[in-house]
Amino acid sequence: MKKVLVLEDESSIRSFVVINLRRSGYEPIEAATGEEAFEQIKKNPDIKVALLDIMLPDTDGFEVCRHIRASGSKMGIIMLTARTQEMDKVTGLMTGADDYVTKPFSPAELTARIDALYRRVGGEDEEESGEIVRGIFKLNTRNRSLEKNGERIRLTQVEYSIVKLFMDNPGKALSREEILNAVWGKDYLGELKIVDVNIRRLRIKVEDDPTNPSYITTVWGYGYKWGF
Ligand code: CA
User: Fold this and answer.
1) Is 161 helix (H, G, I), strand (E, B) or coil?
2) What is the rounded CA–CA span in Å between residue 85 and residue 11?
3) If you measure from the C-alpha of residue 174 to the centroid of ligand 1, how many angstroms do you get, rounded to a whole number?
């Protein structure tokens, strides 16, 4: 999982960022204070990118950034600044930040910056090896194929995208809307039913007993979950 620390004390902004990161295949790790941020970093040494708000209740983002760098960490750091003064940006970069984003920012802008930084800090191990392994399933992201217990399963492009989405969100219930948006795009005009149709087809391919699915389970009234 591509973990991104989101340090932001304003819960509305934090959840906005978190939702958009999830949608882009990242695993957001939330913190509302500097102290929480350090706890999360300790618990999640594989965090590759951190988003740091500047104005925090117990400290400021520059201080957090300085601490992260002082610990020898090479994680990518993006400062979230509400202010537009050049000084803040300069201070942020001086304390060891890699980039900054000025609020209010669009989800597209933020993810583009994170994607770029992630590539730079070499966070794409998964993409480099070309394999995502979850339980008995192995997804090859290069030739876009799936293996179950070493046996090749042929997937359509849409099925591949759905499996990839599940693998990027292991054990997480995904709403049908979420799946539709991630796989078909937000501008898709079709019906949600297309999700169910593809899940049904996918089950025939991956389940031992498609009528009694054990991998892709239905979350009633919501969507689906892949328990690996
Ligand atoms: Ca703040």
Assistant:
1) helix
2) 24
3) 30
